[in-house]
Amino acid sequence: MNLFCSYIHCRPDGRPFYVGKGRPGRAYDVGGQRSQHYMNVVGACGGPTKVLVGKLDCSTEAIAFELEKGLIKCFRNMGIQLVNKTLGGEGITGFRHTLSTKQQMSDTHSGVPCSELRREAIRQAHLSSGFGPSVDTIEKGCAARRGKPLSPEHKARLSALRQGSGNHRFGKHWDQETKDRIAKALCGKKLSVSTKAKMQVAHQMRQAVREGRLFSLIPVKETNHGR
Known about the structure:
The protein is 45% helix and 10% strand. It is an alpha+beta fold. It has a 4-stranded antiparallel β-sheet with strand order 2-1-3-4.
């Protein structure tokens, strides 16, 4: 029994505008605790009953998270505008405050006096740490940042540039000797749970695309979950 799913909500013409994950019933909950941006799009569609829903069942929550992230990345690479504020998955990775929100936060804290208790806590923290990095510490910090993993946004941009003919390996194939070396290097290597989940998601998506069953869009009004 599949207890989790990833789903998309589409406009009446089939264009996706939101990707989500959760329990199967969540896919048909058009409304509820959604963002104002989401509700504005639903209103422009003509109301909740006009929204089309596509759902893909997942065997575990981890797979649902990975599928959600993959769909968001795929749609954005295709130039489709989504109301999702993050990159998907667990947490708020990819969320960015707007410039107006940043300014409001700055104005809120600007000019706020620091209490004596807070000042003393800051002073003690500075004293315990020696306050002020040495030249050696600065050099260590620079060295630590070299080779730092790229952000998800940067990875997404590079991925889009390297797809298809943009990839230096496009149209090329490994010779048998190279394949044998790779197979020997990977022999006996254990995959992590996360890697296995990603591979399963990718396999499921490829198979679903080949069979034309990735998503069957159903109007909310035709389900028992429609509002």
